[in-house]
Every structure is written in C-alpha cells, then in structure tokens.
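ESCALATION

Customer reports they have been waiting on this structure for their group meeting. Please prioritize. Original submission:
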Amino acid sequence: MAYYRELMEYIGTAVDAAGVFIIVVGALLATGRFLLRRQDQTGGSYHLYRQDLGRAILLGLEFLVAADIIRTVVVAPTLENVIVLGLIVLIRTFLSMALQLELEGRWPWQRTGG
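Update from on-call: job pushed to the front of the queue and completed.
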C-alpha cells in the first residue's frame, strides 16, 4: 500500500507539473503570437492575445485541479485535506468560469449561437 501511495504522489506531482508547464508554454506561445500579430492595426491582436492566454490558463487549471484531487483523495484523505481540496476546487472553478465568461462572452451552461 505504501508503494501505491508513493506512486500516486509521483503521478499527482507529474500532473501538477504538466499544468504549470501548459500555463507557461501557453503564455509564451500567446505572447509570441501577439508580437507577430502586433503589426495588425485593426485592434484585434490584444483581444486574440487575451483569448490565447486565457485558454492556456484554463487548460492548466484543469490539470492543477486533477493533481490536487489525486494527491488529496489517494495520498492523504483526511478531513482537513478534503476541506482544503474543496476550497481549492471552489476557487479554481470560479476562476475557470470567470475566464470562460471573459473569453466566450457566455456562461459554460449557456447554449452557443442561435
């Protein structure tokens, strides 16, 4: 059982690292695309930059939440850790919803288009 917990701790850390990696690489790619599009004088470059950056953050947050769930539920399922996990998930869910509203102009549960 100790081996299983240790393995899940490594997996949780790897998923956590993947989330951070996605955010960092996404931010770098979004910035690179913004700098290349900056010559566009229509004013849409900044909006596209925010969308690219927001998508990278959203995807990274999903990985970070998954890592927290793995580590809390599998490795140390104490009541205190579950409460902390609940607060972390609540905060990250709020951030994800706010980012999605900012990016798409609608709530996640709203239908797209007409």
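Sent to customer with the following note: The first helix runs from residue 2 to 37.
Escalation resolved.
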